[in-house]
Design brief:
- The chain is an alpha/beta fold and 579 residues long.
- Strands 6-9-10-3-11-12 form a 6-stranded mixed beta sheet.
- The protein has 19 helices and 12 strands.
- The protein folds into 3 domains: 311 residues, ABC transporter type 1, transmembrane domain (ABC transporter transmembrane region fold, Up-down Bundle); 182 residues, P-loop containing nucleotide triphosphate hydrolases (Rossmann fold); 72 residues, P-loop containing nucleotide triphosphate hydrolases (Rossmann fold), CATH 3.40.50.300.
- The longest helix is centred in the first third of the chain and has 49 residues.
- It is elongated and about 115 Å long.
- The chain starts with a helix and ends with a helix.
- The C terminus is likely disordered.
C-alpha cells in the first residue's frame, strides 16, 4: 500500500526531499536558540558583559531569521509535494477506472469511487504533508533537544525519558482502538454520497411522488450515523490531550523541583536551567505533534488502502500478445457460448448459445424480462468475456482483437441512454471527433431527430444539460442513435433504444436503416414486435436459452413465445383502434 501511494510522487520527488531537508535545518536553528540564551545569561548577564550580550543577541537573531526562512521554504515545498501527490493520485485513479471492464465497474459503487477520488485523496494529501513536515520536525527536534538536555544534565534528562515512554504507550493504545473505527467512517461516507447522488439524479421522481420528507430522513439517518462514528473516534482521540498536559506539567514540576536543588548544590547554572525549560517545551511539543501525525496517518491509512485497491484493480479484459487490428466485416458467430456475470458455471445467464449471423443482416432479439437479451449483445463488443465457448466477429474470436479496434467497429446504444453536458454537436461528436456538419446532419436524419434540432433556437449548438435532462426520453434515444451512426461501424446494436419513440418514428428509423446502411449488421433488442417485424431474422430468448431463431414469419408459425407476444400486442392494438 505504502509503495503504491509513494509511486505516485513521480515528478515531485525533489520537493519531497527538499521539504524535510529544510525542516531539519529549521530544527537545528531552533535548538541552538536556548543554548545561545543560556550562554548570554551565564557569561553576559551574570558577569555584566554588555558586549558579549550584544554579540550573542545578534547570533540569536540570525538563528531566528534562518529558522523562519527554512520554515517558509519547507512549507512551500511541502504544499507543492502533497498537492502534487494528490494530483497524480486523482489522474492515476481516473485513468485506471477508464480501463475497467463492465465486470470491474460492477464491483464498486459510483458513490464509492467518488469518495476515493475526493475525500480519501484529500486525507492522503494532508497526511503526506504532515509526514514531510511535522513527522520530520518532531523526531529531529525530540532527538536534538533530548541530546542537549543530556549534555546539560544527564540525571535531569531522565525526566523526559519517563514522559516519552508514558506518552508512547498512551498513543499506541489510542491508535489501536481508533484504527478500525476510521475504516467504518469511510464506508459510511460512501453511503452518504450514494444518498446525495440518488436524490439529485432522481430529483424529478422525488418531487413527483412528494417524497422530499422521506429523502430528508434518509439523508439525516446516513449523516447521523457518520456523526456517531466520528464522535466515537474522537472520544478515544481526546485522551491524547489530557495525557499530553499531564506529561508537560509533570515534567515542569519535576524539573523545577530537582533543578532548584541542582542550582543550590552548584551542579547546574541558572542559564542551563532556563535552557532545560525551553528544551522541555521542545520535547513535549514534538511529542504532541507526533501524536497528531499518528492520528492523521491512522485516518489516512484507511483512505490509502481504498485508493490502493482501485490502483491495483486490473481490467479482466486485455489484449492478447498479437492483437488483430482489422475487423473484416460484420458477421457474428456464437459457438456454444455460455456466460455468467459471476463467472460461476453453475449460475449461467446464457447457456450454450449457437448462432451464425451474416454481415449486413438485421437481427431482432425479443424475450421476456430477464431473458438475457442485453447480456447477449454486450458480449459482441467484448464488454464482458464469454465464460465458455467462442464468439467470433468477422471470423475472428473477439478475444484476439485489439479492444479499441473491435469497439470502434461496434456501435452500441445501451438501454440507459447517456448524454453529457455540452452542445448537441459536442455530444454527437463522441461518435466521431472530426465529423463535419454534413455528417452530423445526415446521422440525425437517419435517426429522425434532425427536424427537432433544426427547430431549436440554437440548432446543433443547443446546450444539453448533464444527463440530457432538458430533452425528452425519445429525443435522447434518437440523439444516442445518431451518435452511434457517426462511428460508421460494421455492427450496430440497439439495446431497446427505441422504447420511448412512437411507432411511426420507429418505423421511419428502421426504413432509413434498410435504405441507407444495408451493409451494417444490425441487432435490435426490443419489447415491441413492430420494432423487429421487418428483421431478416429474429432471436427468441427465454431464461438465457435460444428458444427460437429464424425469420419473423417462421417464428410466428413455429415459436409459441413469439406468437404469444405477437398476439398480445396485436390485441392491444386492436383494442386501441376500437376505442
Amino acid at each position: 500500500m505504502i509503495r503504491t501511494i509513494l509511486s505516485q510522487v513521480k515528478q515531485y520527488k525533489r520537493e519531497s526531499i527538499l521539504t524535510p531537508a529544510s525542516i531539519v535545518l529549521e530544527c537545528i536553528m531552533e535548538i541552538l536558540i536556548p543554548l545561545i540564551m543560556a550562554a548570554m545569561i551565564d557569561n553576559g548577564v551574570s558577569k555584566g558583559n554588555i558586549g558579549y550580550i550584544f554579540r550573542m543577541g545578534a547570533v540569536m537573531i540570525a538563528a531566528v531569521v534562518l529558522a523562519l526562512l527554512f520554515g517558509v521554504i519547507g512549507g512551500i515545498y511541502g504544499a507543492k509535494a502533497s498537492a502534487g501527490l494528490a494530483n497524480n493520485l486523482r489522474k492515476s485513479i481516473f485513468h485506471n477506472i477508464q480501463s475497467f471492464s463492465f465486470s470491474n465497474i460492477d464491483k464498486y459503487s459510483t458513490a464509492g469511487l467518488v469518495t476515493r477520488l475526493t475525500t480519501d485523496i484529500t486525507n492522503v494529501q494532508q497526511a503526506y504533508q504532515m509526514i514531510l513536515r511535522m513527522f520530520t520536525r518532531s523526531p529531529v527536534t525530540l532527538i536534538l533537544a533530548l541530546a542537549m538536555t543530556i549534555k546539560i544534565s544527564p540525571s535531569l534528562s531522565l525526566i523526559f525519558v519517563v514522559a516519552i515512554l508514558f506518552l508512547g504507550c498512551l498513543l499506541a493504545v489510542v491508535i489501536r482502538l481508533v484504527s478500525p473505527i476510521f475504516q467504518r467512517v469511510f464506508q459510511q461516507y460512501d453511503v452518504l454520497n450514494a444518498s446525495v447522488q440518488e436524490n439529485i439524479n432522481g430529483i424529478r421522481v422525488v418531487k413527483s411522488y412528494v417524497r422530499e420528507d422521506y429523502e430528508i430522513r434518509k439523508f439525516h439517518k446516513a449523516s447521523q450515523k457518520l456523526y456517531d462514528i466520528f464522535v466515537k473516534a474522537e472520544k478515544i482521540i481526546i485522551f491524547n490531550m489530557p495525557g499530553m498536559q499531564l506529561a508537560v506539567y509533570g515534567c515542569i514540576l519535576a524539573l523545577s523541583w530537582l533543578g532548584a536543588h541542582s542550582i543550590t548544590s552548584g551542579s547546574l547554572t541558572t542559564g542551563e536551567l532556563l535552557s532545560m525549560f525551553a528544551y522541555t517545551m521542545n520535547i513535549l511539543m514534538s511529542l504532541m505533534m507526533l501524536s497528531m501525525v499518528f492520528v492523521m496517518v491512522t485516518m489516512a491509512r484507511a483512505s490509502a488502502e481504498r485508493i490502493s485497491e482501485i490502483l491495483h484493480e486490473k481490467s479482466d479484459l486485455v489484449n492478447g500478445e498479437n492483437p488483430v487490428y482489422h475487423v473484416r466485416d460484420g458477421s457474428v458467430s456464437f459457438e456454444h457460448v455460455s456466460f455468467s456475470y459471476t463467472k460461476d458455471k453453475e449460475k449461467l445467464n446464457l447457456k450454450d448459445v449457437n448462432l451464425n449471423i451474416n454481415s449486413g443482416e438485421t437481427i431482432g432479439i425479443i424475450g421476456g424480462i430477464g431473458s438475457a437479451k442485453s447480456s447477449l449483445v454486450q458480449l459482441i463488443p467484448r464488454l464482458y468475456d464469454v465464460t465458455d465457448g467462442s464468439l467470433r466477429v468477422g471470423g475472428i474470436d473477439v478475444r484476439e482483437y485489439d479492444l479499441e479496434t473491435l469497439r470502434s467497429q461496434v456501435a452500441m446504444v445501451l438501454q440507459k441512454n447517456v448524454l453529457f453536458s455540452g452542445t448537441i454537436k459536442e455530444n454527437l461528436r463522441w461518435g466521431k471527433e472530426d465529423a463535419t456538419d454534413e455528417e452530423l446532419i445526415h446521422a440525425c436524419q437517419l435517426a429522425q431527430i434532425d427536424d427537432f434540432i433544426q427547430n431549436l433556437p440554437q440548432g446543433y449548438n443547443t446546450f444539453i444539460e448533464q444527463g440530457g435532462t432538458n430533452v425528452s426520453g425519445g429525443q435522447k434515444q434518437r440523439l444516442c442513435i445518431a451518435r452511434a451512426l457517426l462511428k460508421h461501424p460494421k455492427i450496430l446494436i440497439l439495446d431497446d433504444s427505441t422504447s420511448a419513440v412512437d411507432t411511426k418514428t420507429d418505423a421511419l428509423i428502421r426504413k432509413a436503416f434498410r435504405e441507407e446502411i444495408p451493409e451494417i449488421t444490425k441487432f435490435i433488442v426490443a419489447q415491441r414486435i413492430s420494432s423487429i417485424e421487418d428483421a431478416d431474422k429474429v432471436i427468441v430468448l427465454d431464461n438465457g436459452i435460444i428458444h427460437g431463431f429464424g425469420t419473423p414469419q417462421e417464428m410466428l408459425e413455429s415459436n409459441f413465445i413469439y406468437r404469444e407476444i405477437y398476439e398480445s400486442q396485436q390485441k392491444g392494438v386492436g383494442l386501441h383502434e376500437a376505442i
